[in-house]
Design brief:
This protein is α/β, with parallel strands linked by helices. It contains 13 helices and twelve strands. The strands form three sheets. Strands 2-3-12-8-9-10 form a six-stranded mixed β-sheet, sandwiched between helices. It is globular, with a radius of gyration of 20 Å. Keywords: Pyridoxal phosphate.
Length: about 375
């Protein structure tokens, strides 16, 4: 079913919890930095941009003054960090903190603000619009449309699906924020990495699906620093966890932080074939001027996809409801629920040493909960 072919996503009992069939030793398919280098294939990307922007105040975004700019700049202040009161963490003797990037804005949500900040700056500087793509529940398109309307930047979303289908709430929001929507077939959508893909559909600055570009990698620098900043009077985290879709956020964190003793960064793929994400992250690091030899130790926890991207079997919905009731932290099925479910599995199986301080990135995307009826019952 096309992601926008219905106004809600469906849950399923087809898939099993993380620890149902796969041994724990196989579910942590970690790859460390410093492995043998491969020559990554080149892929279509934006023109070269500095891998690390020194600060937002020196970027073109601050050299223009649309009416909503001051409010938009507030998005790039460090998000708050909260320690979770979670029985699973207590029982394992592990400290779990959460970087609450979900709290900064209802529309330009979580990590999306940072992945978009340099493309937005460039669009303002060049006086052009932005064209991008995504599915019917895309957090990326939702955030891009909101940022565009606040800054006076025209936005165009290429949506995988059929124009006669009802708009999802996500796409309705995007259209209300002025985004032009064009619906394209699945076959055509598969060509989105081809160099002429965007040009076939109109003019504008091309931003790949999910903000997955070297600009997206570079824009994440402030968020990466906040991920490892210690709370007052406490040590820095030893383990950083984040959910992965395109791999851009993981690449941005690794590229920014560089080599750091005592720190491990782990990405949790949320779709099938997550093992391929390792090669995409390596490619993004190479294209943005980074090197695996200049990153923290890092790896991937496989097995958390719960049947595939945006799938939400009954056990995952149940996990969300129990987790939220205990911790008071709202999460969503596509990214953050699978991230915390993976963490819960590792805690329950003693795979994280007692005393470890874990920092989890909440990437927002709560608007997507509207696609899961079981989470919206009164």
């Amino acid at each position: 079913m096309s992601p926008h072919a219905a106004a809600s996503r469906q849950t399923s009992d087809e898939t099993q919890p993380l620890d149902a069939d796969v041994p724990a030793s196989q579910q942590e398919a970690s790859r460390m930095g410093g492995s043998e280098e491969q020559s990554p294939p080149s892929c279509a990307s934006l023109p070269s941009f500095p891998p690390h922007s020194p600060s937002l105040s020196s970027s073109p975004l601050c050299q223009h003054s649309p009416p909503a700019l001051e409010n938009l700049l507030d998005l790039f202040t460090p998000p708050p960090v909260e320690r979770l009161d979670w029985s699973m963490a207590h029982d394992a003797g592990v400290i779990v903190e959460c970087l609450r990037a979900d709290t900064l804005d209802n529309e330009i949500s979580g990590n999306k603000a940072w992945k978009l900040r340099l493309p937005l700056a460039r669009a303002l500087s060049e006086g052009c619009g932005i064209i991008s793509c995504g599915g019917g529940w895309s957090n990326h398109l939702h955030a891009l449309a909101a940022a565009g309307t606040r800054l006076g930047i025209a936005t165009h979303g290429l949506v995988r699906g059929h124009p006669e289908a009802p708009l999802t709430p996500t796409l309705a929001d995007a259209r209300a924020n002025g985004m032009q929507l064009s619906f394209i077939s699945r076959a055509e959508y598969k060509q989105r990495d081809q160099e002429d893909f965007a040009a076939r559909h109109g003019d504008g600055l091309w931003v790949p699906e999910g903000g997955g570009s070297i600009d997206g990698v570079a824009g994440l620098a402030p968020l990466a620093e906040a991920l490892v900043a210690p709370l007052a009077g406490s040590p820095a985290p030893q383990l950083v966890l984040l959910a992965c879709g395109s791999g851009t956020t993981l690449a941005g964190v690794l590229s920014t932080l560089g080599e750091r003793d005592g720190l491990r960064v782990v990405g949790v793929p949320t779709m099938n074939h997550g093992d391929q994400l390792y090669h995409r992250v390596r490619r993004l690091l190479a294209e943005s001027g980074g090197s695996e030899q200049q990153t923290p130790e890092w790896g991937l926890w496989l097995g958390a996809q719960a049947g595939g991207f945006a799938k939400a079997p009954a056990w995952l919905i149940d996990f969300i409801q129990r987790f939220e009731a205990e911790t008071g932290l709202e999460i969503e099925p596509v990214y953050t629920a699978k991230l915390f479910a993976a963490l819960a599995h590792h805690l329950a199986n003693g795979l994280i040493a007692p005393g470890t301080r874990v920092r989890v990135l909440h990437t927002g995307g709560l608007q997507g909960r509207r696609g899961y009826p079981a989470l919206n019952l009164a």
